[in-house]
């Protein structure tokens, strides 16, 4: 939340920086944030602006400009805010001057949101410097942020009030972990390099350097470019990467397959009877469709090392392989891969023994289905809406069953061991905490977007013995 007078003060100092002796220095500092990453990605800043879009590009640009406002140049350590206030400070309100002074002495750090007071404030934990949590007045940010978000931001203290500056970058889990690793390992690397380069340092000099290297605030004073660079590199990679391969839990590429078997009306009752007696098929409520599920004795095949796994389970926890529907003139099998469609076709041929005709198989790629879905008109206004409370109940039941099962199953990010197994060791415990935060963060964001009450993960924190880390 910008305090009164802050926006005007920033506009004035932007104009001041565009002319005179500060123009070149401003361009140099901002270029440090963009040019190395752009060069690595093989693009220029115009390409980057088009890729990020106006809002994201403006936010990174503001991060770079705030870095310039805090920098000191030359042997006398000149700072643009000091000079501006000396020569033009009379043009600003008291609050505007206080804002600029606080911004001048600030550092960009990485914070974790540990509490959201909607419409009022955020409680943040500094992931780089540590220390007790702090509360910042942030009306707009509190309407968008959710618990366990990671934010790169500057916290300004003005008249006993803590606020965020104008530039805030949202960090997903992967770049946030990478950034924390950079600031964890940088002091050790610097010590090793200094020991090799300057073996004759006095003990007094060594102590002074040690104090400097262990002061994360000093590290952050020159670390804004590292923060924006990590964010930019990750975001560029996400926006330019090809769509990930979708695979099912048999390790097969996902396509939407439909197999239609022609049948005579006189054979419908016999077909239904034979399907009821087939192992692996379970008649659904309503009586005209069957779920094809994986036998308990048949493990899923090994999946590829890359790509996203797609699967569905029934209420008993069995993996669903496909669905079969008995229509007036057709028996229709639907599955999520060509291989499953072929296996399902063979299964139906064996169990129905000539009661159906030669199948007609249709497939559709995920990309084609998505494009078709985007072009399809929305649901008819005449269709009765599903009550919100019913949607919330069904969603909660599905999530509950999913996490009751997954807490005892292998999780890839935990090294393909179950959360209960991983939490036994200290390293695994930290991974479990990070995993739980990620789950809860995603659920809170989903529920906010859909206007629902978020699922309560407290039972998982408690069962895994990490409840003390929840706050």
Account of the 3D structure:
The structure is a single chain. This protein is of the alpha+beta class and 471 residues long. The protein folds into three domains: 1-241, no CATH class; 246-375, 2-Layer Sandwich (Alpha-Beta Plaits); 388-469, no CATH class. 49% of the residues lie in helices and 16% in strands. It has helices spanning 6-17, 22-41, 45-52, 54-70, 80-88, 94-104, 139-144, 173-197, 203-213, 216-221, 224-240, 268-276, 338-352, 366-375, 388-406, 419-422, 426-450, 458-463, and strands at 109-117, 121-126, 134-137, 150-153, 155-158, 161-164, 169-171, 246-248, 255-262, 281-283, 289-293, 308-310, 320-326, 330-335, 360-365. Strands 10-11-13-14-9-15 form a six-stranded antiparallel β-sheet. A hairpin with a 5-residue loop joins strand 10 (281-283) and strand 11. The protein is elongated. The two termini are 24 Å apart.
Biggest beta sheet attributes: 6 strands, antiparallel
Number of helices: 18
Radius of gyration, whole Å: 29 Å
Helix fraction, binned, reads: 40-55%
Secondary structure category = alpha+beta
Give the uncertain stretches in residue-range form.
Answer: 297-307
> Which percent band covers the strand fraction?
15-25%
Give the overall form.
Answer: elongated
The multimeric state of the shown protein is single chain
> What's the number of structural domains?
3
The CA-CA distance between the termini, in Å, is 24 Å
């Amino acid at each position: 939340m910008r305090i009164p007078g802050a926006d005007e003060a920033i506009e004035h100092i932007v104009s001041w920086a565009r002319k005179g002796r500060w123009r070149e220095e401003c361009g140099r500092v901002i270029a440090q944030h963009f040019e190395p990453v752009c060069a690595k990605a093989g693009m220029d800043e115009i390409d980057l602006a088009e890729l990020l879009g106006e809002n994201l590009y403006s936010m990174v640009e503001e991060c770079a400009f705030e870095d310039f406002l805090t920098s000191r140049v030359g042997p006398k350590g000149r700072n643009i805010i000091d000079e501006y206030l000396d020569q033009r400070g009379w043009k600003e309100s008291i609050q505007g001057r206080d804002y600029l002074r606080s911004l001048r002495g600030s550092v960009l750090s990485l914070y974790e949101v540990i509490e959201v007071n909607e419409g009022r404030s955020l409680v943040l934990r500094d992931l780089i410097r540590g220390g007790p949590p702090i509360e910042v007045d942030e009306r707009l940010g509190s309407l968008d942020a959710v618990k366990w978000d990671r934010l790169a931001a500057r916290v300004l203290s003005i008249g006993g009030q803590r606020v965020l500056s104008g530039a805030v970058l949202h960090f997903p889990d992967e770049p946030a972990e990478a950034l924390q690793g950079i600031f964890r390992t940088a002091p050790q690397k610097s010590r090793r390099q200094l020991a090799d380069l300057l073996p004759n340092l006095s003990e007094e000099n060594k102590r002074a350097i040690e104090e400097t290297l262990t002061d994360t605030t000093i590290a952050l004073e020159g670390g804004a470019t590292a923060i924006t660079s990590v964010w930019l590199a990750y975001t560029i990679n996400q926006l330019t990467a090809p769509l990930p391969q979708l695979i099912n839990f048999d390790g097969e590429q996902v396509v939407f397959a439909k197999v239609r078997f022609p049948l005579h009306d006189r054979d419908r009752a016999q077909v239904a009877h034979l399907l009821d007696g087939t192992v692996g098929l379970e008649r659904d409520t309503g009586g005209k469709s069957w779920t094809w599920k994986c036998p308990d004795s048949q493990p899923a095949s090994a999946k590829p090392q890359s790509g996203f796994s797609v699967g569905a389970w029934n209420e008993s926890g069995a993996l669903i392989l496909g669905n079969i529907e008995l229509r007036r003139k057709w028996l229709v099998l639907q599955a999520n891969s060509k291989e499953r469609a072929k296996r399902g076709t063979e299964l139906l041929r064996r169990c129905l023994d000539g009661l159906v005709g030669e199948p007609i198989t249709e497939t559709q790629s995920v990309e084609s289905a998505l494009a078709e879905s985007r072009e399809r008109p929305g649901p008819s206004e005449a269709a009765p809406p599903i009550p919100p409370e019913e949607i919330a109940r069904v969603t909660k039941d599905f999530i509950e069953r999913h996490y009751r099962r997954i807490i005892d199953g292998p999780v890839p990010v935990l090294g393909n061991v179950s959360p209960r197994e991983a939490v036994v060791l200290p390293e695994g415990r930290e991974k479990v905490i990070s995993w739980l935060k990620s789950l809860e963060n995603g659920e809170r964001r989903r529920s906010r977007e859909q206007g629902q009450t978020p699922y309560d993960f407290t039972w998982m924190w408690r069962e895994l013995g990490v409840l003390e880390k929840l706050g």
